[in-house]
C-alpha cells in the first residue's frame, strides 16, 4: 500500500516520462564484471579477474524490466588452497544464474536509473570451464541481492550501463560480494 502511494506521488510520470515508454520489448545485455568479496568472504578471498556475462531483459508494463542471466564470479583465495578451495587451484569460480526485476526511473531522457532485487543461484566449481565440476569445499546456494544502475538508451537501438550489485548466499555465510558491472545491450525486437 505504501509503495502504491509513493509511486502515485513520485511515480515515473511525475519525473517527466510521457505515457509512451522508451523501453522496447526485449534486450540482450553483454557484461563485463568485477567482484569484490564482502563480509565473511573477505577473510578468505580477494577480488578475482574481470569476467563476462549476459542477461536477457524483457519489458513489463513499460516501467519494469525483468531479466534472466548468467555469469561466472571469480575470487582469488587469500591463503593456501585447502580450506575453502580445491588444492592446485588459484581461483574460486562460482557459476551464477540470476533473475532480476528492475524498476526504471527516468532521470533525463535518455538517462535512466534502474534499481531492484536480484535472485541468485550460486554453483561453486573447481574451474570456470565446461563441463561444470562442483567444488567439494563449498555448497550450492541460493542468494539474494540488490542492483542499481545508470543506463543510457541510444535512439539507434542499443544501451550502455554501469551497475553496482551487492549480493550474498543465503544458505551459509561464506559467499558475499559486491560487483561492478559494465554492460552494453541491444534491442532484440522493435515492437
Model description:
- The structure is a single chain.
- The chain is mainly beta and 191 residues long.
- The protein has a single domain (22-187), classed as Porin (Beta Barrel).
- The protein contains one helix and nine strands.
- It has an eight-stranded antiparallel barrel with strand order 1-3-4-5-6-7-8-9.
- Strand 7 and strand 8 (158-169) form a beta hairpin.
- The longest helix is centred in the N-terminal third of the chain and has 8 residues, at 2-9.
Question: What would CATH call the architecture?
Answer: Beta Barrel
For the record, the count of structural domains works out to: 1
* Secondary-structure element string: HEEEEEEEEE
Percent strand: over 45%
Contiguous low-pLDDT stretches (5 residues minimum) are 1-19
Q: How far apart are the termini?
A: 32 Å
CATH fold annotation: Porin
Would you tell me the overall average pLDDT?
83
* Extended strand count: 9
Structural class: mainly beta
Radius of gyration, taken over Cα atoms and rounded to an integer in Å: 18 Å
How does the overall form come out from the CA principal axes? elongated
SS summary, helix count: 1
Strand arrangement within the widest β-sheet reads 1-3-4-5-6-7-8-9
Task: Please identify the top-level CATH class.
Answer: Mainly Beta
Helix share, percent? under 10%
Largest sheet: 8 strands, antiparallel, barrel
